[in-house]
Amino acid sequence: MTATEAFVRIILLGTGATAVMDAWLLLLKRMGVQTLNFAFIGRWVGHCFRGTLVHPSIGKALPIPGERVLGWLGHYAIGIAFAGLLVGLEGTAWMRAPSLLPAVAVGLGTVAVPLLAMQPAMGMGIAASRTPTPFRNCMRSVVNHAVFGLGLYLASAAVEWFIR
């Protein structure tokens, strides 16, 4: 596999897996479950670019122009980066013969990013400890990232099927 083909596949895997996660979040939202607020993610990213990484409460931070779009772009960029992590760990051969376990394992491993970095930086504490329902929020994150891992597998299988 050429480097260009691997790069394109990683972009497709990350985009596809993130879309699977978004479909899951949309289903949850329609069932009345609170889901991610991409405007707050965009607000945090926007403030990071301005030099402020940590906030007492991202909801009370000054809004950033275009924060919802920035949040969605950041969400997909992170998904692509996590796809690159999977391929970096498993090798490019995994993309030609994807298997479920490594994809879900990486998806579950990526939950460390929101629990240990993003949530604390947004004022929610480590593992959402400063929220009214920390355990429930952590479990939602774990399930969301497991779904992302499933999406990595499904996206890779779809890309390989389409290429053949």
Number of helices: 7
Radius of gyration: 16 Å
State the low-pLDDT regions, or none. Answer: none
Number of domains: 1
Number of strands: 0
Describe the main β-sheet briefly.
none
Which structural class best describes the helix and strand composition?
Answer: mainly alpha
Distance between the ends: 14 Å
Taken from the alpha-carbon principal axes, the silhouette is globular
Order of helices and strands: HHHHHHH
Helix content: over 70%
- Quick check: average pLDDT? 96
Estimate what percentage of residues fall within beta strands.
under 5%
Overview of the molecule:
With 164 residues, this protein is an all-alpha fold. The chain has one domain. The chain is built from 7 helices and no strands.
Q: Keywords, please?
A:
mainly alpha; 164 residues; 0% strand
Briefly, what is this?
The chain is mainly alpha-helical.
Outline the fold blueprint.
Elements: H1 3-30, H2 38-49, H3 67-90, H4 93-96, H5 100-109, H6 112-121, H7 134-163
